[in-house]
Amino acid sequence: MAVQIKGLVLLMACVLAGGSHAGALSGMATAVSATPAELSSEEEQDRLLIGRSFFTVPWVAAPSATTARDGLGPLFNSNTCASCHQAKMAGHLLNDKHEQSRALVVKLSQPQKHALRDKTTITVPDPVYGSQIAINGVSGVLYEATPGLDMQVKTVVFPDGTEVGLSWPVPYLKRLNYGPLSPDTRLSLRLAPMLNGTGLIEQIPEQAILAGADPNDRNRDGISGKANWVYDPLLQAFKLGRFGHKASQASVMMQTADAAAHDMGLTNPYFPEELCGSTQAACLQAPAGRPSARGETLDLPMHRLEAISFYVNHLNGSPKRRSDVLPQALAAGKALFQAVGCVQCHRPSFKTQKGQTIYPYSDFLLHDLGPALADARPEFDAQPNEWRTAPLWGSAEKVRQGWRFLHDGRAANHLEAILWHDAEAAASRQAFMQLNVTEREQLLQFLESL
After folding, report:
1. What number is the average pLDDT over the span 83-96?
2. Whole-angstrom Cα distance, residue 302 to residue 86?
3. How far is CA 194 from each of CA 24, 88, 90, 170, 275, rounded to the nearest angstrom?
4. How far apart are CA 407 and CA 409, in angstroms?
5. 317 touches 393 (CB < 8 A)
6. CA dihedral 285, 290, 292, 293 (to 10 degrees)
7. CB count, 10 Å around CB of 135?
8. Is pLDDT at 26 greater than 50 in this prediction?
9. 131/259 Cα distance (integer angstroms)
10. Which residue, among 337, 303, 320, 319, has the nearest Cα to 440 in the 3D structure?
11. d(CA 278, CA 284)
12. For the segment 266-278, what is each residue's pLDDT rounded down to a tens digit?
């Protein structure tokens, strides 16, 4: 009976996705391979399959024959979650056509007004275009703008004479279809993150993260990590942020809801209204998706949002380290990683609420990384120059896939990422630059193994 029920749910997930039964079966191996050992119940297995379906299969614009996926837009960037988070798509500035990747989005904010905003809002958006530029629109709705990148370049010289060129993208917008931006609006770039391991990060006890906070640098070590307290509108409470480049999302579900609304135009419990500007008439008048069989009017009602979050939470557990390098070969690099002070922010390990030891190499706190990395976008308590310590696990996979690093993908590798560090991380960067060539390679090899 259990096998019959499981097959029925698999078929339902396929039908909801608008695909064939054979298509669902072809994707089953991938879904099951993402299932951790503790996912033993049929209900959890089925939930994973349904979440995977809503994560990977395209959404369509209303009106449509399907009531499960007809909520796309009216303004959007991508029609699937996987468009920005598949290995071949994420982590890159440009796509195969040398156009700006959909995984790199343009955010809008008005930093000069941030201190005066309602504290329950993440930032102050542009009054017409909102907080993110949409590069696509459904039929009858003009897209908002076409983004472009100007690449700037500078050279860093090591004490031993080694020169490294650093480049960084400066965003601009053309073909603004709804008039000019407000003079107070600034542009920022955000690169889609790796999702593997997010479920484990969510299991880290809040107090374990807060134990490392030292916002006033009372110990005078030059490191003053601080928490970002973000507002969860469903709980109607401020929670510790731990996801996103500025730790501005408190949970995987909150992060999923934000991406669904801003990237795909899907209404959900966190964003129940379409993200149309007051002067975007066609967007405001666009057809809404039909109510579901349960009578729900949101594009992504809670049970679907929970299913996607459940799937994301169980994406292959923690990222895998390289298996072709023996630990003793990395011992020198690991010792140097500690000696130059990287571990002050990139904390190696945590224990989850279930007692599992994980190795994300992050403290999940905000740190000042200097004016060169500041991007004019504050988020909740995070200032433009403050960033969450990026988890280093998954570096081996990123290197293998050719992913770029930092919030806007400016760093092509770990070496460039280190050289961009400043302010609280300036001493560690200088210590790294003082190493000889062999020592630098040892440290970088250690990072690339994580």
Report:
1. 71
2. 24
3. 24, 12, 8, 23, 25
4. 6
5. no
6. 150
7. 19
8. no
9. 12
10. 337
11. 8
12. 999 999 999 999 9
Please give the backbone phi and psi of residue 186, each rounded to the nearest 5 degrees, phi first: -120, 150
CA-based torsion, 88, 93, 99, 103: positive or negative: positive
Residue identified by tokens 């809040």 is 206
Work out the end-to-end distance of the chain between its first and last CA atoms, rounded to an integer number of angstroms: 43
Could you say which DSSP state residue 423 is in? G
Residue 403: partners with Cβ closer than 8 Å, 6 or more residues away:
90, 91, 92, 194, 397
As given in the structure block, the two tokens for residue 388 are: 């969450």
Collapsing DSSP to helix, strand or coil, 26 comes out as helix
434 token code pair: 């003082």
Question: 370-407: b or e for each residue (b if 16 or more CB lie within 10 Å)?
Answer: beebbbebbbbbbbbbbbbbbbbbbbbbbbeeebbbbb
Residues 167-204 pLDDT 10s: 999 999 999 999 999 999 999 999 998 888 999 999 99
Contact criterion met (CB below 8 Å) for 53 and 17? yes
More confident residue, 194 or 76: 76
- Using DSSP's 3-state secondary structure scheme, residue 401 falls into helix
Six token digits for residue 5: 């029920």
| Opening angle at CA 209, ends 205 and 214, nearest 5 | 150
CA distance 432 to 415: 10
pLDDT one-digit tens code per residue, 337-353 = 999 999 999 999 999 99
Report DSSP state, residue 322. P
Residue 25 scores a pLDDT above 50: no
Supply the pLDDT for residue 63: 77
Q: Of the given ranges (3-17, 97-111, 153-167, 227-241), which has the lowest mean pLDDT?
A: 3-17
pLDDT at 35: 42
**CB contact at 8 A, 281 and 252:** no
SS3 313: helix
Answer yes or no: are the C-beta atoms of 77 and 134 closer than 8 Å. Answer: yes
Report how far residue 88's alpha carbon sits from residue 285's, in angstroms, rounded to the nearest whole number: 36
Distances (CA, A) of 438 to 317, 331, 412: 33, 14, 20
Report d(CA 259, CA 80) in Å as an integer.
10
Give Rg (Cα) of the chain: 22
The SS3 assignment for 289 reads coil
Return the closest-CA partner of residue 244 out of 273, 285, 202: 202
Give every CB contact of residue 441 below 8 A, 6+ residues apart in sequence.
Answer: none
Amino acid identity, position 173? L
Could you tell me the CA-to-CA distances from 144 to 101, 128, 154, 169 in Å, in that order? Answer: 16, 10, 32, 21
